[in-house]
Each structure stands twice: as C-alpha cells, then as structure tokens.
Fold these 3 entries.
Entry 1:
Amino acid sequence: MKLGLENRKKVMWLAVLMALAGLLFWNELSSGGPKFTGSAPQAQNGGLPDLNRIEARLHTSALDRLQQVRYRGSRRDLFVAGPQAMTPLQAAGAAAARRGPIAPHPVLPPQPAGPPPIPLRFYGYTQRAGQPPQCFLQFGGKIFIVGTGERVAGRYVILSINANTVQVRDQVTQNTQFLPLIHA
C-alpha cells in the first residue's frame, strides 16, 4: 500500500507548509481575536472614534430630488398612503355592485357527452404503383398497416385515406372521425 511518501521533495514542501500554517493558526489564537481597523478617526482614549471629527451633514438637496421622482407604473404607489385611485374598469365594476345583484342565468341541464374519440394515431401512408393507398396507424403499442375497407383491432374500419387525414368509423358506436397526420 502506498502512502504518497515516495517523493521526498514533495513531502518536505508539505512539512514546511504545514509548519507555516500551524504558526499562523497559533498566532491568531494567541492574539485574542481579530483586530479591527476602521476608517473613522480614532481618539487617544480607549480606541473609540472622536465624534467631534466625524462629518454629520444631511444632504437635503439629494432628498428633495428623490422626492420629486414620480412613480408612473400601473400598480399602487408605495410612497402614498391612503386609498388608491380607481381605474375606469374598477369604477364601472363598483357602480354595477351598487346597483344590485344581476339575475342569475338559468342553469341548463348537462348535455350528453359525444362519442369517445377514436384511440388511433395516423403516422403516414404509402401508395405503390397500381395499388390502393395504405396507412400506418398506431393502436396501443402496436402499429398497423391497413388499406381502405380493412379493420383495425376488430372494431375500427378505414373509410378513406388521404395524404393528411384518415377517415375511420367505430363499428360499436357508429362514430366517424377524421384522424390528422401526426408529425413526429
């Protein structure tokens, strides 16, 4: 098993760097923590800043310029207290609410659902010279190559085949649908 101690030169450099890191660590611990040097002038007594020498002027001209900036967004102004002015649409809604409730529309009975969609997918067609066209249909995990008048899965009859659509009839529900070409 190798420990990485084969290269004597690298081991010596590692020992020197570890000793240097140890000295720096010991020096940091023995000094009582980091020393802060601020940019404020220090007084002679206790290291506190001399408050008489710090500039404490308030620039009112900059504040006046900031106060003149007007918010022109479409949302509420964060710097104005009180109610927000209404937009024309909100005013119309408030006026309608003051007039009273609107009579409810009569509830219509639910419409019967149409026949379920045909679960075939049309992926393309082929036509050899002198033969009728055939289409590629997917049903579940299987792909069928069928022509006009043939059945898919014993239930769906192919009525017509075009370049972009296939007309299919469900023999159980007598539902006829056009299946669009799916571009893969």
Entry 2:
Amino acid sequence: MAKKEKTKAEEALNQEATVEDTATEAVSDETVEATEESAEDKAEAENDEAASNEEQPAEKDKKDILIEELNDKYMRTFAEFDNFRKRSEKEKAAMFEVGAKSIIEKILPIVDSFERGLGTLTEDEIKANPFADGMDKVYKQMVKALEEVGVTPIEAVGKEFDPNLHNAVMHGDDEQYGENIISEEFQKGYMYRDTVVRYSMVKVIN
C-alpha cells in the first residue's frame, strides 16, 4: 500500500516536471519568436529610412535643376534687356548728333554773315557806332553759345594742310610759308565735338 502511494507521488512529480518543461519551452519559443519579429521590424524600419534618404536627394536635385533653369533664364533676359538699352542709347545719341549737326550747319552761314559785315569795320568804328557795337555783341554771344555746345573753329592759316580738315581750292607759291602750308582761308571750317561739320576752304602753298 505504501509502495503504491509512493509510486503515485513520483508519477505526479514527474507530470509536474513535464508540465514545467513544456511551459519553459513554450516561453522560450515565444521569446525567440518575439526577438525574431523585433529584428525583422528593425530591419524593415532601417530599409524604409534608407529608401526615404535616397528619395530626398532626388527631390533636392530636381529643385536645384529648377533653380538653375530659372536663374539661367533670368540672366539671359537681363543680358538681352541690357543690350537693348545700350543699343537704344547709342541710336538716340546718333540721332541727336545728326540733328545737332543739321542745326549747326544752318547757323554757320549766319555766323559768316556777321563776320563779313563786322570785318568791314575797324574796332574803333564798331565802338563808335551803337548799331555796329550791338551786332558785334550778338555775334560774340552766338560764337560763345556754339562753343559751349561743342562747336569749335578749325585752325587753318599757318597750319599744315590736312585733307581730313581742310578743302584746298587753290594752290600757290609763297616764300613766307613752307611747302604744304595753308597761306589763306576763304571760308572758316568748324567741328562739332570730334566730327567735321564744315571743311575749311583754303589756299595751300606748293
């Protein structure tokens, strides 16, 4: 009787140990599975992050390309506008030069008339005659105004003949002057800034 009870007790203990081992194995399996799932989740998260990092530079590159295209377009437009502005200013200056030259050409014969009229009188006669003195003052005022806008007479008598400034209408011999020197001026020439408005009509010594 005692032996039977002892045997039952041992069987019960063995069953409990078997249950504990089974439970331990189950817990161990669950822990391994949880660890494996955690590792998989971590690897997947790392892959997603890497993919996200790869996409961001691509988006940044597109923005940089767009910025470069817009900047290039702006620089081209600015250059075209700057060229147009310079061309317009140059054309405007050329038109002004042509217009100014045309007006000066019309004024010069009036200056010639003053010089011929006043040339028939001496300085004393001009001062003694109020009318002549008034004309002399008007003439000097006109010459000064022309000089202020850039109109200057071309030097002739005593200077070497220059076909770019002078128009030789007569040749002669004169021991007082050297060869190719202007001895007489028939009509005064004028320049407007760097452009000849009217050539001097002169006599040149051979």
Entry 3:
Amino acid sequence: MRHRNSGRRLGRNSSHRKAMYRNMATSLLEHGRIKTTEAKAKELRRVVEKLITLSKRVPQSAIDAAGPEEAGKLRAQRVHAVRQARKWVARRDILQKLFDEYGERFKGRPGGYVRILRVGRRAGDNAPMTLIELVEGDFDGTASASALDVATDASAVDAAPPEEVDADEADDDGDADEDADAEAGELTE
C-alpha cells in the first residue's frame, strides 16, 4: 500500500525522475507548450506551478519601487528564490525568463498557471497524450476558461501537422490516407 506517498513513480528511480522533471520543466518554460503523456503532465504541473509561485514572490517591480534599505532586503529574498528555482530549471536563460517574464505575467493570478489538454493516444503503446501549456497571464476572477478559449485551443491542436503513416502500417487496400484522416478526427472528438 502507498499510504502517505504522494506523486507518481513513472517507472523510474528517484534520480531519473528528478532529472526528467527538471528537463521537462525547462522545456515547458522555454517553449510555453509541450506534448507528453498524461501522467507526466500531471506531475510536471506540480513542479512548474511551484516554480512560477517562487518567481512571483519578489518581482523586480517591487524592488524598483522600494527604498534603498528595503530594496536590499528584497534583493536578498529574490536571490534566495532564484537559488531555490535553480534546482528545477536547467538553463540560466530560462531561469531569467521565469523570474522576469513569468513572474510579472502571472503577478495577479492566484495559481492555475498550467493547462493540460488531452490530444488522443500514442500510436505505439496507446498511452494517453496531452498538451501541457502555460495559460495567459490575465485573470479576471470569473470562469476559468471561456468557450472561445477552449475552441481556440482545440483549433491549435487540429492545426498540428498530421502524423506520417509508414508504408508498413497501410492497409492491404491502400487506404492509409483515409485511416490517418479518421484518426485525426478521433483526436478532436
């Protein structure tokens, strides 16, 4: 029994799992959107949301607005937050982007910085695949996502280039194009 053991093991030992989260978090913060399995996306969400919360702790605008003595204390707190985030972000330029861009972007948002969208199943092992992406920074306190946002995200998934069908995977009657179109239709439903 796994009582009081949070998190998924994902078939990896702890050092491999930590390295995978670090690489995936860096990629998500760099590109804004990545495609991965559902279980990995749900675990990655925990890591990235903590990182963005760290970046919001002492924004650069607060340091600029503070007096000289208070600015020194705020800089020390910011350095501490940067060092904590460095544990999970592999590249310095992405760490800089996290604290400069994302800290200001999500300043007024009380959590929920990441969205997970299901996009279908992987061809080889039928694993559920998802897009994990950073949401827009504007937060008005009303409904979490409007129908327009959901429709826009669905069209972005549809706009992705279709997967190529290998000649070995084609049916005997040569309907590879029709099969690919049917699979693409299933992904959007």
